Amino acid sequence: MAVNYKEFLEIINKGFLPAYVFYGEERFLIDEAIKKLKSKLIAEGTEIMNYSMIEDANDKNIIDSLETLPFMSEHRFVLIKDDDVLKKINDDTVDAIIKRIEGGNTDSCIAFVFKDKIDTRKRIFKAISKHGAIVNFEHLKFDEAVNYVGFFVRIYGKVIKKPVAEYIVKSVGVDLYTLLNEIKKIVSYSDGQEVLIDDVKDVISASTAESVFKLVNAIGLRQEKVAIYILNKMILNEENPIGILAMIARQFRILIKAKYLLLKKIDKKELQQSLGIPYFSINDIIQQSKCFKEKELLNAYKLCVKCDRELKSSYDGNLALESLIRKLCN
């Protein structure tokens, strides 16, 4: 079955399925889904023996993990975080995974995580859709992100009024990891019990979202020096390299989708709803999409994915981002 995050939570509160697929742009909620599923499946204190995370998949490590029996727990959890997993394993391994899924085996529950949209026509995804759950984590709508801002602020023991929360989302965007990073800085800065608009403006003196927009604009105009200057300014403001990359990648995903939708001659309101961005940003997105050809946008996103791997391999974050910007500008 194809479900959203809320429906996924309802499923695991009732019981377990043999397999799951998590994919989409909202990485914070994907990580939350993994934590919740892991805590439900694995008995407390037995994670070392009953949890396997595979980031470089091959036939042997997948089969070995699935065939290992649970120890002091009813279930094992096998998490595969490798976008290229289906290119790396042979048909026999795929058949073995499908057989376990169709048999309803939850001794070793398996979950796949993908950054991009999946091809649901593939055999393995058809089996998971029928016997498990495929969960799509799209970026949140504006109002949903505003609600999460209130939730994050309350976690830190403070309160925030809705207009102030809306200002944060308008300034930063709807990516939850980016929002959480900003909330941490804001609540640390705020003296009182309530987070005030002045606190927010002091901390978000230069909007991250606006900086990313200008950065992508400079890339579109092939202004390498300007793009590098904006990047360095963001780094000096202690922005997290992974957070910067996430917002750059998100901007290119929005532009790819906008480019495709504009060919259909849809109106601005429909475009705004499809992209899940505030209406006031639509004209800017339309103009920015004109700076790139479709092929350039797709290539830019692929370079972002490659840079993401480099950052997660303990690569120098600042150097990796600067290298990315130079490639995108040329």
Automatic annotation (TrEMBL):
Enzyme Commission number(s): 2.7.7.7
Keywords from the UniProt entry: DNA replication, DNA-directed DNA polymerase, Nucleotidyltransferase, Transferase
Gene Ontology MF term list: DNA binding; DNA-directed DNA polymerase activity
Keyword Transferase among record annotations: yes
Domain DNA polymerase III delta subunit-like C-terminal residues, every copy: 210-327
Catalytic reaction equation(s): DNA(n) + a 2'-deoxyribonucleoside 5'-triphosphate = DNA(n+1) + diphosphate
Domain DNA polymerase III delta N-terminal: 20-137
InterPro entries: DNA_pol3_clamp-load_cplx_C, DNA_pol3_delta-like_C, DNA_pol3_delta_N, DNA_polIII_delta, P-loop_NTPase
GO cellular component labels: DNA polymerase III complex
Swiss-Prot/TrEMBL GO biological process terms: DNA-templated DNA replication
Family from the record: Belongs to the DNA polymerase HolA subunit family.
PANTHER family from the UniProt entry: DNA POLYMERASE III SUBUNIT DELTA (PTHR34388:SF1)
UniProt-recorded name of the protein: DNA polymerase III subunit delta
Annotated source species: Thermoanaerobacterium xylanolyticum (strain ATCC 49914 / DSM 7097 / LX-11)
Upper lineage: Bacteria, Bacillati, Bacillota, Clostridia, Thermoanaerobacterales
